[in-house]
């Protein structure tokens, strides 16, 4: 068996092999629209080929950017289309592709990679850990009155900014959605870029895909678009919001108020909210919003630990020695992490460790979405001195809950 890089001429073979591995058919997209796989990058993809030339496995990567705590943007290959034909599973094909892919990404200078995991038990073995989470909220519209902020009732705080909401069709506002999303993702830890190529091809899920959708666009007092909600209403009178993208909480509240006030709708479903989102607390009736389908979303794999840890911003000051085991790559190292003034220095050390952990667990805590102390309590991380886990919690904490909406 050979693991080889692909070229543009391999596109159809790559797509067909991927779809066969997942028992999927090529769907005919709507006129002028692209299929979800149309943005595959053949210069970042791999084919597993048998000795007689038959393709039996695929692994790809998209060229994306990840926003880190502190606002830094770093290249983040988005691993995708990882599949093996049913006839060749459990024969080492997947392991060979993942080993080759990680080696290639390191050679290209990437400090980390990301993916969305179809099965949680598979990718932890390769060093990936769940780093962001998302949840669905279903709201009974007739109980969904939003309370007035306390600041308004007491006369304190700033008055809500004036603004407006305009309803457009998806076909009318592709460029506007792209611009708003790009502003949003640059300030949201855990968010991924959506390259222009994706928007132009309609590759992905709505609203990137040009499936019929209504788009509620929020504009601030100066008329500048600062948020949107992509939604549809089904025959059961349920309004489903694909995603709400805003640059601040005021725009989100205005869009939530709009969809929750939609006539002839019984329920409103927000498909993706970050853990701890304040919307539930904004209802007069706290129980109006029912949380469900809480799940992991973005998984992170560190490829260069010192560079990855110094790339992000930090909270507080302090020093920790991290002992990191990377069994998949056969590596084991200790790193002294020194944080001061929001920046970190990280270098190999022979000092005794404060915390011992697997590289997948380091991926989980990297964006601040998983507390190190939680993984200590779960038995994933070993703390070697009192207070080490609490210090790690304080240092790794992000300024905002990391959240990723992008599907790839």
Automatic annotation (TrEMBL):
Instruction: Provide the binding site for acetyl-CoA.
Output: 82-84, 90-95, 118-119
Tell whether Transferase is among the UniProt keywords: yes
Name the Pfam families on file. Answer: Acetyltransf_17, Acetyltransf_9, SCP2_2
Give the matching SUPFAM superfamilies: Acyl-CoA N-acyltransferases (Nat), SCP-like
Q: Which UniProt keywords apply?
A: Acyltransferase, Transferase
Span of domain N-acetyltransferase: 1-152
PROSITE patterns (UniProt xref): GNAT (PS51186)
- Catalytic residues of the enzyme: 123, 408
Extract the signal peptide range. none
Keyword Amino-acid biosynthesis part of the UniProt annotation: no
Q: Which family does it belong to?
A: Belongs to the acetyltransferase Eis family.
Tell me the NCBIfam families matching this sequence.
PRK01346.1-4
Assembly and binders: Homohexamer; trimer of dimers.
- The protein in question is named GNAT family N-acetyltransferase
Species the sequence originates in: Streptomyces fragilis
